[in-house]
Amino acid sequence: TQLLEQSPQFLSIQEGENLTVYCNSSSVFSSLQWYRQEPGEGPVLLVTVVTGGEVKKLKRLTFQFGDARKDSSLHITAAQPGDTGLYLCAGVNSGGYQKVTFGIGTKLQVIP
Amino acid sequence: ETGVTQSPTHLIKTRGQQVTLRCSSQSGHNTVSWYQQALGQGPQFIFQYYREEENGRGNFPPRFSGLQFPNYSSELNVNALELDDSALYLCASSLRGGVLETQYFGPGTRLLVL
Backbone phi, then psi, for A49, in 5-degree steps? Predict the structure, then answer.
């Protein structure tokens, strides 16, 4: 069974602070995805990283895929209250079908 | 909005009953996956349907079953409901065949089993 561990599980910070969320696994994935989920809604895909060592930026969000394709991080610069939500990492394996394994999530609260 | 819709939005059932949840996929998508998200957890993969057949399944018992219709919409059926089945049930549609198959999630159906 493939497992993804996310840390921290809860994070409460002041507006303007920086933060990093980590996603680790003992398994190798074809790609890794980060989602954001708000209450009462389904997860929304933020980014997919495919190549080991890959770094992608989405405005104030920076995503990195580990060299061995087992871990990833999400860094948010100058957090805003609108960044509040549940951040989920998900490992993707493509074989006969695309299997997506989610982590437990990091619940982020940005206080104005 | 992703274009994926689910019904109903909320549902209350009692232990032992059966439930059917519905999902309409995004236009042009041919694959539907179902996930269970318990409170405080990440989504857990239940199964995936492609061309009206189940072609992948997570660690869920046979009382979780599904269907995919010719228009690619889908149903999730759960028999003999248990208290632990209380969760948010998410469906996600995607288009198989692309280099990166991206799943688009619906808003979910929140099921409470009493």
Answer: -115, 135
